[in-house]
Amino acid sequence: MATERDELVEFGQRWARAERERDTAALGALLAEDFRAVGPRGFLVDREQWLERYDSGALVHDAFAWEDVEFRRYGDGAVALGVQSQQSTYDGRDVDGHFRVTQYLTRATGAWQIAALHLSPIAGTPAG
């Protein structure tokens, strides 16, 4: 029987796979309707903008990993803290990097979704 932690780990793996494969259909299901992200340089991105990066072909990953993840539960929500490593280009520019990522996950709709995400570059790596 899968534990709740197993469920959250599997959710994170689905998210990383969808990001790596630029699968906007899968990502659309994983992101809450009011999803917001804070990028590595402090800019804000909403759900539509997050998905458009892939639909437009602007963001391409050669590698994308979600590792060293820890979870904390809070009611119908959870916080996932992990490391996102990527080999990527955005509009032809190198955006490789390692980022400490905080995700706020919610189960308000019955299935886990990412409501908010914040990326911070890990010192000594490119900021993306």
UniProtKB/TrEMBL annotation:
Coiled coil: none annotated. Pfam families: DUF4440. SUPFAM superfamilies: NTF2-like (SSF54427). InterPro entries: DUF4440, NTF2-like_dom_sf. It comes from the Bacteria. Residues 12-114 form the DUF4440 domain. This is Nuclear transport factor 2 family protein. It comes from Streptomyces albiaxialis. The lineage of its organism: Bacteria, Bacillati, Actinomycetota, Actinomycetes, Kitasatosporales.
